[in-house]
Amino acid sequence: MSHTPSRRGLLFGTAAVSAGALLTACTSNEPSSKDDSKGDAAPAADETGKAVTIGFAGPQADHGWLNAINVQARQRAKKYKDVTLDITEGSNDTATQIGQIDTLINKKVDVLVILPADGKALTQAGLKAMRAGIPVVNLDRVFANPQAYRCYVGGDNYGMGLNAGHYIGEKLKDTKNAKVIELSGPDSLELTKQRSKGFDDALKNYTNIKKVARQAADFTVESGQQKMAQLLQAQKSFDALWNHDDDQGVGALRAVDQAGRDGFLMVGGAGARSAMDHIKADDAVLKATVLYPPTMAASAIDLARALGQGKGLAGLSESEIPTSLTLYSAVVDKTNIDQYMPSGFK
After folding, report:
1. What is the four-CA torsion angle of 144, 148, 152, 157, rounded to 10 degrees?
2. What is the pLDDT of residues 16-30, one digit of tens each?
3. Per-residue pLDDT tens digits for 122-162
4. Beta pairing class for 240-243 and 209-216
5. Per-residue exposure over 201-229, b if at least 16 CB sit within 10 Å of its own CB, e if not
6. How many CB atoms lie within 10 A of CB 312?
7. What are phi and psi of 149, to 5 degrees?
8. From CA 272, how far away is CA 71, in angstroms rounded?
9. What whole-number distance in Å separates Cα of residue 118 and Cα of residue 269?
10. Cβ–Cβ under 8 Å, residues 116 and 59
11. DSSP 26
12. What molecular function terms (GO) are annotated for this protein (predicted)?
């Protein structure tokens, strides 16, 4: 007969599977397996299980994607009658966010979901929670020490660049001496480096394409406009642009309009509603965007609930949830825009 392990034992035990489980399995309506060798599925959204209080600490929602993260977390928690969400105000100041996490630890929440403003700087906060017996779901920006979290949920930054590069490559594969430029995020972020590396690796498959310029912006409208204007001034002609972030893409499109430029393909990043509106209307050089889904916050709530209830995932044999889950970065263009339009964030 199975027994419920201690919370500390559950956190630092050896169980767990690799990435790739479908989060929808957390809310499966299929009945639990009768086989004692398989883990119990988390109850469905309309079924009430053990009451779980989930603490949620993230950075300041000063960006469309970060605001969407908070919205996704709140909406998901509301779907569960057995979940109480304790969400902090959010701060980009490391000391402030550490203090907010300390408060949630002192409240003895059942599970913590943390999207750190700086993964390395917040690692000790994650470790403190885990050592206090509170499992941590590390969201998006990964801690420097895997012992600081029970489960990691995030986007595929390398895959995002890879998919953007392959999409552009296929569009330009018959273009002789094609030129591509890149408007990246801040070079201080590891995610930016991963996105650029994926993009460059994809372009290596196309011998006719050369990346001729790159500028780093700051994920803001203003920086996107400024850096794009510099790129346009330096490059009198090119065939495609990949922009890492749809918020800064708003500024990039303004710079393009002001310069009266066209004749090239622009691919965005993240999946903002503004980008999807342009793709749907086909009224700008922006023809596609590569998703970095804020739905990862909803998935984090699913996993946190399962952790708090001591459940695994339906459809998997293991008794524990995975240690990591990496979301896929789909490319959205006019061929599939209707499918993804509802996920566009403001």
Report:
1. -10
2. 333 333 443 343 333
3. 999 999 999 999 999 999 999 999 999 999 999 999 999 99
4. unpaired
5. ebbeebeebebbbbbbbbbbbebbbbbbb
6. 25
7. -150, 155
8. 14
9. 21
10. yes
11. G
12. carbohydrate binding
Phi first, then psi, for residue 52 (nearest 5°) are: -130, 130
- In angstroms, the CA 45 to CA 64 distance is 27
Please say if the pLDDT value at position 297 is more than 90: yes
Q: Strand, coil or helix: what is 327?
A: strand
Q: Are 88 and 100 contacting, i.e. CB atoms less than 8 angstroms apart?
A: yes
Number of residues written out for the chain? 346
Write out pLDDT tens, residues 168-214.
Answer: 999 999 999 999 999 999 998 889 999 999 999 999 999 999 999 99
CA distance linking residue 128 with residue 146, whole number of Å: 13
User: What structural domains and CATH numbers belong to the chain?
Assistant: 7-149+294-327 (3.40.50.2300), 157-292+331-343 (3.40.50.2300)
Angle between helices 123-131 and 94-106 (to 10 degrees): 10
